[in-house]
């Protein structure tokens, strides 16, 4: 989705919602990559390549993407497998569906949903582009109480008006989470 005009600095984004065909694709349904000011503002971690030692423990993990992770587990079919080459069960594709798409002059919007990547959970994401701003509405509902982590990866230093204390260590020892170090709260 791109802002109006041919401006190379225009705000635009891409989102992944469709069918995951094979193990070359990542478990990142409803993930977003954001561009603006002529740069990538919120990158997709999965575009680094297979030669990286981080492939299994970071790049294919849902937490490495700008989307939601449930209970520190990567989306189906990757889950907790110890290989990057995981294909879905035949007849049970891990997919999202396009619910709404609008490409008007005043605003652009897309809504996608998936109930196929976490058992008992529905992910529902709406992105609205009001150039140069993007409004991101992410709704998650699960049948059981769940830990929901909404990751947003960007370049630069995060700032807060609140005083945050560095906790040290990593968020957990799970794949992907082990690389999120020195959290603050």
UniProtKB/TrEMBL annotation:
Q: Which residues cross the membrane?
A: none
What the entry lists under Gene3D superfamilies is as follows: 2.70.98.70
- What InterPro entries does this protein map onto? Hepar_II_III_C
A single MF term (Gene Ontology): lyase activity
Q: Where is the Heparinase II/III-like C-terminal domain?
A: 20-155
A Pfam family cross-referenced in the UniProt record is Hepar_II_III_C
Q: What is this protein called?
A: Heparinase II/III-like C-terminal domain-containing protein
- Organism expressing this protein natively: marine sediment metagenome
């Amino acid at each position: 989705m791109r802002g109006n005009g041919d401006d190379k600095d225009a705000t635009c984004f891409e989102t992944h919602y469709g069918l995951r065909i094979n193990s070359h694709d990542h478990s990142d349904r409803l993930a977003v990559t954001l561009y603006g000011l002529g740069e990538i503002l919120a990158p997709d971690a999965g575009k680094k390549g297979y030669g990286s030692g981080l492939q299994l423990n970071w790049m294919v993990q849902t937490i490495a993407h700008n989307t939601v992770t449930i209970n520190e587990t990567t989306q189906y079919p990757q889950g907790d497998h110890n290989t990057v080459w995981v294909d879905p069960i035949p007849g049970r594709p891990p997919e999202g569906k396009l619910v709404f798409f609008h490409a008007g002059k005043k605003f652009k919007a897309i809504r996608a949903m998936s109930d196929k990547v976490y058992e008992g959970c529905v992910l529902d994401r709406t992105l609205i582009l009001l150039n140069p701003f993007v409004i991101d509405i992410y709704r998650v509902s699960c049948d059981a109480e769940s830990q929901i982590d909404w990751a947003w990866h960007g370049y630069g230093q995060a700032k807060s008006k609140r005083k945050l204390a560095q906790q040290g260590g990593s968020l957990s020892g799970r794949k992907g989470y082990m690389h999120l170090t020195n959290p603050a709260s």
